[in-house]
Each structure stands twice: as structure tokens, then as C-alpha cells.
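**Reference record**
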Amino acid sequence: MDKSFNNTDLEDYKESGVLKGKVALVTGGSSGIGRAVSIAYAKEGAKVVIGYLDDEESANETIKVIEKYGGEARALNADLSTSDNCNRLVQFAMDEFGQLDVVVNNAGFQYPQTSPLDISDEQLLKTFQIKVFAMFYVTRAALPHLKKGSRIINTASINAYQGHSDLIDYAGANGAIVSLTRSLARRLVDQDIAVNGIAPGPIWTPLITKTFEDINPDVAEDFGKDVPVGRPGQPYELAKAFVFLADPQNSYMTGQFLHINGGGYMSS
């Protein structure tokens, strides 16, 4: 398998301007899926605020790509495991652009363990802090600024539906995301704020190499070969789905998850 992260600058992406005049906040937006989403939103006309953790170089590179296409973006380094930093990120978006229309909760963390006995209290807490607590904190901070027609989009995983023997805490956190998304959708529907999500299958991102290379040096050759398509997806292959969920014209869909997984069906 090609070990590079292909086409993350979306050179071939055909935009239609559906997010013109909107402001989007994307957590975990400096690389991988978040980077592809940030660039796609910018190409669709949105101003983008990127939340990232420590990797300033990747965040700046994402902004450069966005600016290359005539877009506008800002980035803030913030550890989203605390509510204070989530509040700070949302306030940063408001200070920079004065409005907020689309919130993409995409920040992620995973660490494999072959036995539940090896999952420490610290790892369990960190997994849920980054995947679930941060999602709630950011959403709670954003809600006072969201208007009729705003969109909240949460990134989960196929592992929420079919489980994963080596990512037990991660799969559990993603299951919580599904329930959180559907509950928020029920509560916010009267405000005409749609809450949906995407549950990717195996997507080749920097998180995968960071997670698995130490325990599986062949991860680049093995990853994603177990789905019918026979390969992992690339981040840009999810971009249109995130745009669809952010599109103001997508007005009759809430509490749903799009399953983009190369045919790796939930029941497999």
C-alpha cells in the first residue's frame, strides 16, 4: 500500500459554493480527516477555524493550502480534554469571524491493547476525554452562538457498530458518540439545528501510523485489506460526506450516521 496520505489538499475537488458565508469549526483539523474536511469547507466558501494539538507545522500547512485556494482560516492549539480549552476554542472562532454555523467534532485518540487488563485508568479516561467529553464540551460552548440552520457533525467509527478486540475503550467511546449524537439531534431539532455524524471504516491517516506502527511494523501493508474494497480509504474520500451534512439544503436529516467504509458493513 502507498504509505503516503494521498490528495489531502483536494486538488481535484469540484466545489459548488454551498457553504459560502458560513464559518466552520473543525477539531482535529490539522491532519488526516480533519484536514481534508477543513480544505473542502474552505473550497465550498466557508471560513474555517482549526483546533489542533501541538502540531503547529501541520496546522500551518493546512492553512497554506486553504489560502492557496483563496480561502481564509485560523488555527488554535488547544488540549480539548478540558472544558476550559473547549470554551477557549469556540470563543476564538467567534473573536476571529464573529459567527459560527458548522461544528465538526473530529478530534481523536486511540491506543491498542490486546487485553482489557492492560487498559489503565489513565488510558480509559483519556480516550473518553478526547472522543466524548471534548465533543460535548465544544458543542455546549458552541450552542449559544448557533442559529437556525446550523449543523453539528460528529466523527465516530465503524468500531462503534462492530467493535474491535484491540481497541475496546476506543470502540466504547465511539458507541457513546452515536448515542450522544442522536440525543442531541432530538433535543435540538426544534431549533432547526441538525446533528449528524460519520462513522468511517479504515482510513489511512497519521493517527494510524502513530497508533499501530510500534506494535505492527507491517501496518502500512495490512491496514484496510479486510474490507471488500481491499484497501483503506483516504481522507479526501470522506470530504464530500462532511460537506453534504453541512449543506444548509440538507434540511430533513438529523440523528443519522453516514457509513463510509469500503463495504465493511456493520454486521461483518
